[in-house]
Amino acid sequence: MDYPTIAKPGLDDFSVRPNLDRYDALRESFSWQELRRELDGLPGGGLNLAHEAIDRHAARRGDKVAMYWEGAGGEEEQYTFAQMRDLTNRFANVLRGLGIEKGDRVFIFMGRVPELYVAFFGILKAGAIAGPLFSAFGPDPVRDRLEDSGAKVLVVTPELRGRIAHILGDLPDLKHVIVVNKNGRSQDPLAPGDISYEEAMASASPDFDIVPTTEEDYSIMHYTSGTTGKPKGAVHAHLAALQHMATGRWALDLHEDDIYWCTADPGWVTGTSYGMSAPWTNGVSQVIYEGGFRASAWYQVIQKYGVTVWYTAPTAIRMLMKAGDDIPARYDLSTLRHTCSVGEPLNPEAVIWGEKVINNQPFHDNWWQTETGAILIANYPFQDIRPGSMGRPIPGVRTAIVDENGNEVEPGEEGDLAVQPGWPSMFRAYWRNQEMYDSKFKNGWYITGDRARMDSDGYFWFVGRADDVINTAGHLVGPFEVESALIEHPAVAEAGVIGKPDPVAMEVVKAFVSLHEGHEPTDRLRNEIMGFARQKLSAAVAPREIEIVDSLPKTRSGKIMRRLLKARELGLPEGDTSTLEED
Ligand code: ATP
Ligand code: MG
Questions:
Q1: Reported confidence tier of residue 247, pLDDT bands at 50, 70, 90
Q2: For a pLDDT cut of 90, what percent of the chain falls above it?
Q3: What is the Cα gyration radius of the chain?
Q4: What are the CA-CA distances from residue 524 to residues 343, 373, 529 (Å)?
Q5: Cα 551 from Cα 161, distance rounded (Å)
Q6: Whose CA is nearest to atom 21 of ligand 1?
Q7: Could you tell which of 145, 222, 268, 367 is best to mutate to test the pocket of ligand 1, judged by most ligand atoms within 8 Å of the CB?
């Protein structure tokens, strides 16, 4: 399927000239060492993300706003870089007072309140490893992660503490619970032994010398989304800051005066790499919106804060599309000048929708994963968009398509998406799982687990996760291609495609689709969608079966869980469902 290329204006015709204004030449001359000089480093020579994201800007332009916060109930707060420095120093002192040392794990379990950000960078300043957990988790996923990581301290809100109270006794490594009662929202008394964040912060000093960390010391650990199996604890090092800064400039095109909004929760890697590190290592102001998804509320955030650069995800874009084009028309979105997406394949339909409806801004897809720590492949502002493509690798990173032996294949051929190890934000370990880590490398490549193609101009095209690719009558079919065709049908909101075992064809393609408001799930409609897909795709690739469902199972980070669709279809065990979103 071909979608017309979206052409970009000449460099001088952008309202703001893109940071990345040439590609091939930069790729050739680029060196991470050279860019590394743009980081401050610690006085003693080490590197710490908290210094690069907060203190260095506090020293140079302390009164610049780092964070515009809007609470779920409409509360507004602002924090400058200088305030963030002092608060994070205080929190680092609190941790030091509790005996936290370099390398200890400190986990955070709370919604998107400013204190989450304070705690996160305070943890890094104390030399500890920060582990943010998504606030919608129930007790079991929280216990699994705290147990696996051996976390010593948990920072939590009263409400979430209540949710998991009964598991806290199961965790021998957990020594302290710090309770953040944001703006006195909770009237409940503290449980015995718990530490009040507010009290501890009030008596802590705002001065702190960052515990000397090297660029290789661990900084953050994130459990993966669990789309394909049990979540893995990917561990990152302070050096990742370098790549966050670089991709913040190249892929997000962040400039000094931008107002940036990343919709991802810090419980997932996008929420830390791009909801903390990328904007702040570049000294850019960002909006944090505590509330959940509601189309009108989201457009309102863009209008109210004058958001210029917006980073979101396909699932959110599809929900905005589903909510209708008349809603964005009611808001002033004219400040938006660059929009990006990550997390799942971005259907061409969604890219084009942005251009039609969101201040003429097509969404720029980019690709990366928890393990890669930062964007590796991107559509850049200056570069024409080929809708459906993830774009081209960032300068300083080599990606390739390899066969089952780890040898590069010809352009146009499908294979495993692989990366040459050594990029700064690469994961350094799966926590306590060396074997799993080692299994990801082959013939000198890191094998990502995704299948893709590269065209002759070096653009990468996602095919599917290796586990999701369908083998039907000798054809390998990527679910993404089929799903993208299906959602072009006006009645289809979302689609998830699986291979269903078949005695003749090995597998047949089966699609699950949910409908836009106002469409009834009739046989007639199902047949019509089937015919529509056949017309768009070859008969071999089009779904043989279509089932209309109310909604598709998704991870809490919004990814369609094809493995669950398949397990349910076949009546097999569902496996790890700790990240499954509740309806
Ligand atoms: P798990 O590894 O536990 O199964 P996960 O892979 O979904 O979960 P993440 O690291 O959050 O965990 O997601 C990264 C994956 O998301 C990528 O490997 C890829 O499959 C998918 N992905 C991310 N961005 C894109 C994109 N732009 N296009 C297509 N797929 C994407
Ligand atoms: Mg993965």
A1: very high
A2: 93
A3: 23
A4: 34, 46, 9
A5: 30
A6: 344
A7: 367
φ and ψ at residue 566, rounded to 5 degrees: -70, -45
Nearest to 66 by CA among 290, 254, 288: 288
**Taking 70 as the threshold, does the pLDDT of residue 1 lie above it?**
no
Q: Which 3 state secondary structure label does DSSP give 435?
A: helix
pLDDT (tens digit, 9 = 90+) per residue, 428-460? 999 999 999 999 999 999 999 999 999 999 999
The rounded distance, in Å, linking the Cα atoms of 104 and 126 is 9
Phi first, then psi: what are they for 250, rounded to 5°? -80, -50
Which residue's CA is the nearest one to ligand 1's atom 3? 226
**3-state SS class at 380:** coil
Q: How far is the CA of 529 from the centre of ligand 2 (A)?
A: 31
**Mean confidence (pLDDT) of the chain:** 96
Looking only at the bridges linking them, the beta strands covering 441-442 and 445-454 are antiparallel
| Token reading at 264 | 């991802």
Reduce the DSSP state of residue 169 to 3 states and report it. Answer: helix
For residue 296, with 0-12 CB atoms within 10 Å meaning exposed, 13-18 middle and 19 or more buried, which class applies?
exposed
pLDDT for 2 equals 72
Which secondary structure element, helix H or strand E, spans residue 353, and what is its range?
helix 348-357
How many helices (H) and strands (E) in the chain? 19, 27
Cα separation, 419 vs 332, whole angstroms: 41
